[in-house]
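cache lookup: miss for this entity combination. No prior model stored, computing from scratch. Input as submitted by user K.M.:
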Amino acid sequence: MTKNSYKTGPDELGYYGEGDAAMGGMAVGETLMPALHELNQGFEEAIKDKKFLDEFAYYCKHYIGRPSPLYFAENLTKELGGARIFFKQEHLNHTGSHKITNSLFQVLLAKRMGKKSLICESGAGQHYSATAAVAAKFGMPLIGVMGEVDIARVNQNIIKAKHYGAKLKAVPGTLKEAITDAIKTWTTNPDFAYICGSVVSSHPFPKIVAFAQSIIGREIREQSLEQEGKLPDMIVGCVGGGSNFAGAIYDFLDEPSVSKIGVEAHETAALSNGTPGIMQGMKTYMLQTDDGAKSLGGMSLGAGITYFSVGPLHSYLKDQKAVTYSSATDKEMLEAYKIIARTEGICSALEPMAAAAEVIFRQAKNKPKDYTICLSLCGRGEKDLDTIQENIGKDFE
Amino acid sequence: MSERFKKIFENKNPKTKLVSYFVGCYPTPHESFKLIKEAIENGVSILEIGYCTSEASAEGPVIKAAHDHVLKSGYSLNDTIKLIDKIRSYNKDVGILLMGYIANLYKYPIKKFVDDIKKAGADAVLVVDAPHELKEENELRDALNDNGLSLIKLAAPTTDQKRLEDIIKISSGFIYQVNVSGVTGVKSANETDVANFVKRIKKLTNIPVCSGFGIKSPEDAKKVANSGCNGVIVGSTFVKYIQDNLSAPDLTQSFGKQVKSFSEVLK
C-alpha cells in the first residue's frame, strides 16, 4: 500500500497498512488456503479482462437496474432545515439491496473460474436472496448459511431464495455464527465457490467485495457532479461488515474534502467499542473477551448490522483517521424509519436507518444550506415489516 | 525443534505413535487431568491438548460442543496451560502439543504465550487458522524456534506441491497430515488416499508424518498406520467417548480401555 493513497488496496497477503497495525490478512485453515490463492489469481485476471468487465456492466444495468438513482430528499431536507440530503437509492436494485452487485460480480467470477456450486452466508437474508437470484440466473446450485434468529425475522428473503432454488442451512445464532459455519461448509467442499457477502473474512474477500461495491461511489460521483455540480460534502452509510459503506466511500478515499461517517449498530459497534483481534479469517476490530477466546456483542434490530466484528478496511481507515465511525441505537433507527416513511414515502430496511439516524439527529441540522449529505439507503424494508410493526406499529395508528 | 518429540519418534516402540486430542479442561480441569493420566498409562505417545475459542472454524459438532462447554464454564487458555504444567509434573516423556486458534494467542500475546508454555513443559503448538501467510504465524514460529519448541504445520488434501514444499521447509516436530477436506469428526478417511498422501510427503522429507481426521475405530487406526505414517491422530472419537459417558462413574477406567484398544493395534 503506498503512503499517498488509501485506494491501492491490501498487499499480496491481504494487509491494509503496515507493521503491527496492519489489518486483514489470511487467518484460515490449510484446506482453504489453495482455494483462496486461486480465487485471488482468478480475480486479478478477471479485472484485466475487458469482456468480463463488460459482461458485469451489462448485467449491472439490465438485471440489477444500475445505476441506482441519487435522489434529492427535498421534504426531509426541509423538515431538518439544514444540509441538502440525498439518498443513494440502493434499495431500488433488483432483490432490494446493494448486495446483488457483489453477488453478481462473484458469481460471474466463479463461472469464469469454472466453479460449479456456490456457498454463501447471510445476516439479513439480503445477500442470500441476491445470491440465490444470480445463482438461478446462471444455473448454479447454492447453499446459504444463516442464523436461526435471522431466519425467523427476515422470512421474506428466505421465501424468495427458496423460489430461486437455493438450499438453506440453518445454524443457531445470527450473522456471526453463519460466517463461521460458512467457512466450515466451504472447508468441507473446497471446490465450491464461496460468495462472501461483505468486506469481511480472509483475503482476498475484502478486496473483491470492495471492488464490486465501489461502483456505488463512482455512481455517486457522476450523479452528484451532474445534479449538483459538485461532490457531496459528506457520505454516510451503515456498517455491519461494511460492504455498502465501503462501496459508497471507496472512490473518495483520497479526497478528505468529502467527510465520511460509517454507523454501526450500538449493540455491536466493533469500531467504537472493540479492540483488534483475529477471528473469522481476519485481523480487525471486534467485540471480544480480553483473552480473545470469545466473541461478544448483543442484538440489534438490524439483522444485517448485528455483527461483532467489521471488515479490515474499515479498521484500517479508522486507525488512519480517514473515516469517522459512530453508532446508533434501535430506538434511533426506528425513529429515523418513521421520519423517512412520513416525509419521503420510502419504506427502508432498518440497517440503513442507523446511518439515517446519524444524519437526522446529529449531522444535517446544523449544516449550511449548500452543504450536501449523501445517505446510502442500502436496502428496502419489506423484510423488516414484522419487526417494525411489532416495535412501533401503534405509532402509525 | 522439540527434543522430546525427536526422542519419541526415534524410539522404535510403539511402531506407530498414538497422538490423542483432548479438549483442555473438558469437562473440568480436574476430570481432564484424570482422563489424560489414564491415556498416558494406556499408550498415548503425544497429547494434543486443545484450547478453546468461540469462532473455531475447523471443528465439527462433537469438538465444538466440548469447546462451548469449556467456554461456558469459564476455563481459559491460562487454565489449560496450568493443566499442562500438572501433566508435565506427572510424566516427563509424553509429548505435549497445544492446539487451537490464533484469536487467543494474539491477545495473550504471542511471546508471553511461548514463555509460559515452555515453563509449563509443552513441546509444540499447532494453530489451525495460522497459515504461513499470516504475520502472527511468523512471529509465533520464530518465538517457538528460539525456545527449542516446534510449530506443527498442517498439510491438507488440497495442498498443492509447491505449498507442500513450502510447508515442509518450515515444519519441525512432525507434519500433521489432514486426511479429509472437512471439519473434525465428520468424514471418514479413505485408506488409499491416505497412503498416497503419506507417500507424497515422505518423498520430500524425513520429518515424521502423523495422520489425522476421520479415524474412528482401532481398525481405521490400523489401516492408516499401514500407510507408513509415523503417528495416528485420534480426536473426535475420544472426545465423543468422553461426552457420551460423562455421567458414568467408571469413565476414567473405561476411557483407558478405549485408548488401549487403539494403542494396541499400533505397537
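stored under new cache key. Chain B has one domain: 15-254.
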